[in-house]
Predict the 3D structure of the following.
Amino acid sequence: MRIDHLIDGKSIAGKDYFETINPATQEVLAEVASGGAAEVESAVAAAKEAFPKWANTPATERAKLVRKLGDLIAQHVPEIAETETNDCGQVIAQTGKQLVPRAADNFYYFAEMCTRVDGHTYPTPTHLNYTLFHPVGVCALISPWNVPFMTATWKVAPCLAFGNTAVLKMSELSPMTAARLGELALEAGIPAGVLNLVHGYGKDAGEPLVAHHDVRAVSFTGSTQTGNRIVQAAGLKKFSMELGGKSPFVVFDDADFDRALDAALFMIFSNNGERCTAGSRILVHKGIYVKFVDRFAERARRIQVGDPLDEKTIVGPMISQAHLAKVRHYIELGLKEGASMLCGGLDAPVVPDRVKKGNYVLPTVFAEVNNRMRIAQDEIFGPVACIIPFSDEAEAIRLANDTQYGLSSYVWTENIGRAHRVAAAIEAGMCFVNSQNVRDLRQPFGGTKASGTGREGGTWSYEVFCEPKNVAVSM
Ligand code: NAD
């Protein structure tokens, strides 16, 4: 199979190609066009050309096309989910039941919302001020390899619905489902040039794209390191930067123990642990620490690791051999740093023959972790849990905030006052109380500190994809 760029509604061959590999089997899934500055130039020109007409299309008409794209995704869930699972190793139970259906919802939600964009009025005795929200123009949308389809649609849906045009660049490690998105967008009737796709590596295709002078906004999801680089290369533009995390999952001794345990396991081992909002630092009150650690490790030992196409598999393969090596390196480091490894480690998991060449690592649990250890400070981005004891609320807050990141956070307690105090004190863009991460598309999604700037979701997406203008009329 060959995947080409999509520019101005046409499939454009690459000068070079790279392979995208199934991380469970190492089979080559497709040859993918490797773009650079020339392809970026054509794609941005096509998006710029398409912009005025699309921006001036009535919102109700844009909404129809955007909703139609949602319908087409909904009709193709099994096919897209299987492609996604093969391309990035996320298990089918997640891609088929959660992630791809959520992608359709992204289009439904923003189709509705774009018809309701309103403004504010600020009347004074001398002037009537009111706000207009204009589309921004050509947007660069850059996506990582974890949950690639959902992330791409989370950007494409508001971008297009609000009247912008886009050049989307997927991760070189997981480009397949976005290529399908491009086909479905054309099938839905979205005009040529409104959504363009340039495939390729970050340095070759991503950097010229963000630096392009006709690109007005950059919506980026990826690592903090790349985010910093993009801000420098892009110059003055609108930014939404959704970056890395090392989110605290705080369990007090008065929490609903069983629910907290379930959620803690889910937040670090689902999506293979390759999740930006993973609760990767589990802070547990000393009063329940021993019981919690025992039960957590016992459950982690029983997690099914294996074929991502098997509905019962919880942990699939890591995205690449390089990423597997990184995760294994952190397991070695945890042992060297003196954390206590309760399960998992460097032994190869037993997996079915079909996937025996896969990039597998066992779900690993470290207890007695000191928050200053590197396993507690660095984003491992794999199924590796760090459990850290604390003695009181003040220490829990101090440890939760002792990190460069600030994406998500989780607080478990039955004490309502403490729940609100801790939620307010944690430095993070999001805090879930007595809950795992549950997304509502109206929430502001994003992080603080090294986890990023800007928020997307609901009216927060105006910040990225709309340009507010104040009109002041003299009375
Ligand atoms: P990455 O930063 O390596 O790559 C992300 C994307 O940026 C890819 O498409 C890549 O090709 C591109 N890129 C790389 N260098 C570039 C450059 N110089 N200019 C422009 N584009 C460039 O990240 P990754 O390894 O693909 O993804 C994992 C990271 O993403 C983790 O840190 C994770 O926490 C983060 N993430 C964050 C969120 C969030 O919402 N905050 C969600 C998912 C993933």
Remarks:
- The longest helix spans residues 92-114.
- The longest strand covers residues 127-135.
